[in-house]
Amino acid sequence: MSTTPRLFVISGPAGVGKGTLVSRIRELRPDLDETVSATTRPPRPGEVEGVSYHYLSDAEFARRVAAGEFLEHADVHGHSYGTLRSEVESRIARGRSVILEIDYQGAFQVRQAFPAAVLVFIEPPSFEELERRLRGRGTEDEEHIELRLKNARHEIEIGEQYDVRVVNDEVERAAQELLEVMAKYEKDGGSQPCL
Predict the structure, then answer these.
(1) Could you tell me how far CA 138 lies from the centroid of its own chain?
(2) Domains and CATH numbers, the chain
(3) Cα 185 vs. chain centroid, distance in angstroms?
(4) 41, 65, 128, 135 — which has fewest CB within 10 A?
(5) Band (192; pLDDT cuts 50, 70, 90)
């Protein structure tokens, strides 16, 4: 049975467990590729060019933005970050699907630049559970938690614009659902309903 490699874009609010879910998917599907992002921030000790990031000057990053070489890009804490179109296209040309974990703004940039991308929104089982997870991390003060919760309400509304929504109530169950969704899109473009 032949399949078509796809670009899967994973988004969701802080605390929903996107990173954990994507890590589990990569364990279960080692054939999925991740891309190396570009950034204007300087390398940290131990980081390797082309493995950790593609390190670009501000001028080179701006040139590439102007040339349309990014699927998505954003400024974060004074530095630019982005996904190079070539990183995705080269992997798909080799017959490998790609998984990207980015925020909703980046996801919609990708949809414009790469319409065949499949946007997957990861949701919490409930807003109360999301708040419990955020508080349980113990990494932020009350002000930051409240800001993340406010942002999460907005993101969950935006999640309705995604191709697929997966509830991360339990990592293994959510991972299996996501794997089924991905297989369906690779097989027939997602035109048939997922089981």
Answers:
(1) 24
(2) 1-33+96-195 (3.40.50.300), 35-95 (3.30.63.10)
(3) 17
(4) 128
(5) very low
How far apart (Å, rounded) are the C-alpha atoms in residues 17 and 7? 20
pLDDT of amino acid 133: 86
Closest by alpha carbon to 158, among 112, 115, 121? Answer: 121
Main-chain phi, psi angles of 82, to 5 degrees: -170, 165
What confidence score (pLDDT) does residue 191 get?
55
Give residues with Cβ within 8 angstroms of 11, minimum separation 6: 18, 101, 102, 103, 104, 106, 107, 119, 120, 121, 122, 155, 159, 162
Q: 45: exposed, middle or buried (C-beta count within 10 Å: 0-12, 13-18, 19+)?
A: exposed
pTM for the whole thing?
0.86
Pairing of strands 38-39, 79-84: antiparallel
Q: Which residue has the higher pLDDT, 94 or 138?
A: 94
DSSP 3-state of 113: helix
- Report the C-alpha dihedral over residues 186, 191, 192, 195, rounded to 10 degrees: 60
